[in-house]
Amino acid sequence: MRKDRNLFQGNLNKKNYFEGWYYKQVSTNGKTAISFIPGISLHASDPHCFVQYIIVDETLENDIATGYVRFPVESFVWNDEPFAVKIEDNFFSESLVSVHLESATDIISGNLKLGPLTPIESTVLRPTIMGPFAYIPKMECYHGVTSMNHYLDGSLEINGRIVAFSNGKGYIEKDWGTKFPKNYVWLQSNHFEEPDTSLFFSMAYIPFYVRDFLGFISNIQLNGKEYRFATYNNSKIKLSLPSNDTILVTMENSKAKVKIFGKAEHMGNLQAPVLSGMDKTIKEGVSGTIELELWDKENNTHYHGTGSMAGIEIVDAEDLVM
């Protein structure tokens, strides 16, 4: 495992391996969200790299679009210092997104400057959002959060229409390993009334050598303070699925308690990694809503707010209800 988790963790000689970065951007007016997923799939039957995307534009009648643009493995080029990934004419770093994508249905091009990024707090024992589990070898999927919140500068041309992103908001995370969990939920938003408020949450069944365990990780940044809820810091959790597109989560530890209600909107199809390659179709929304309520036990404060343009995935999650 490399020190900077945003770097490419693999190499082109790995087998049955995937790695991908998730760049989410929301426009200046808060009406358009677009996520790019540059990545590589090194499965023997179909090795390739790709840029996947999902677009939601609330100003258009056809408000959801997704696409998966394939490239040969040789098109995947990376750099460590500074970090960058280049896939043909598409470039992703910690300061710039530059895309020139054409699929069967969409043409997307333009440049967006990013920053400054807002990383999560880390220590030797908690080097990533996964805490001490980041050090355990041969887990099926590792997760990292690169930036909870940052501003954008620039514009994209999407199917002939110029969309402004200056002073819009961005978010970056990544995954790598052999495959995604078979069932999981994922929530993310940094579009609250307060510009520095941001939230990430994920829960899944994790294969762990001879047995599985139910694991969850969550990071909330609010009023200049970070709140971490996770399996590894003895937080408690309750999760329910009131409907096919809603999720209710309550978490608590010695420092704080949080209640999260997420409602997905405008779900689109994305491809996710399984043992055979990028062969699983999942549903994701990038324009949902999240109601967040947090009680800080140490400072005796209470927060209640609503996040928009929320990223939400609920994938075969019935077994996660508890």
TrEMBL record:
<dbReference type="Pfam" id="PF14249">
    <property type="entry name" value="Tocopherol_cycl"/>
</dbReference>
<dbReference type="InterPro" id="IPR025893">
    <property type="entry name" value="Tocopherol_cyclase"/>
</dbReference>
<dbReference type="GO" id="GO:0009976">
    <property type="term" value="F:tocopherol cyclase activity"/>
</dbReference>
<protein>
    <recommendedName>
        <fullName>Tocopherol cyclase</fullName>
    </recommendedName>
</protein>
